[in-house]
Specification:
138 residues; mainly alpha; 3 helices; 0% strand
Length: 138
């Protein structure tokens, strides 16, 4: 900003007004960002999430690096040997599980009314006991 004693041309005044407007806009934006609690909270959560993710990744890499090479080799052999067996077991278990679920469904449907009857009977028994106690106390 120029001093008040210097004469200013209209162009200089316009340029100074534009600079002041730009500075004011920047200041308003900064204040708005400081007052926006929702955005600040979201930024903190994102920052914390990134920090935790980085720590977990780092810990994982350090843990893997700490495993001795013979153990890593044995683990790799075990995984490669178990892979086909695991795939075969999953492919066999899938249809068997579906058959078991389909055959158990009718039995479960039949059991539902009995469960309701049992709860109703228990409620009636409780009510009878309470009524008898009340009669006894009176």
């Amino acid at each position: 900003m120029s001093s008040p004693t210097e004469p200013q041309t209209p162009e200089e005044l316009r340029a100074e007004i534009e600079r002041t407007r730009a500075e004011l806009g920047t200041t308003v934006d900064a204040l708005s960002d400081k007052l926006d609690v929702k955005t600040q909270a979201r930024q903190r959560v994102d920052s914390a999430r990134a920090n935790v993710t980085a720590r977990v990744t780092d810990a994982k890499h350090r843990a893997v690096a700490a495993v001795p090479p013979p153990v890593q080799q044995a683990l790799a052999k075990t995984q490669s040997a178990a892979g086909p067996t695991l795939a075969r077991a999953q492919s066999t278990a899938g249809p068997a599980l579906a058959r078991a679920q389909s055959s158990a469904a009718p039995a479960l449907q039949k059991a539902k009314p009995y469960a309701t009857q049992i709860w109703a009977g228990a409620g009636g028994l409780l009510l009878a006991v309470l009524l008898l106690r009340r009669r006894k106390d009176s």
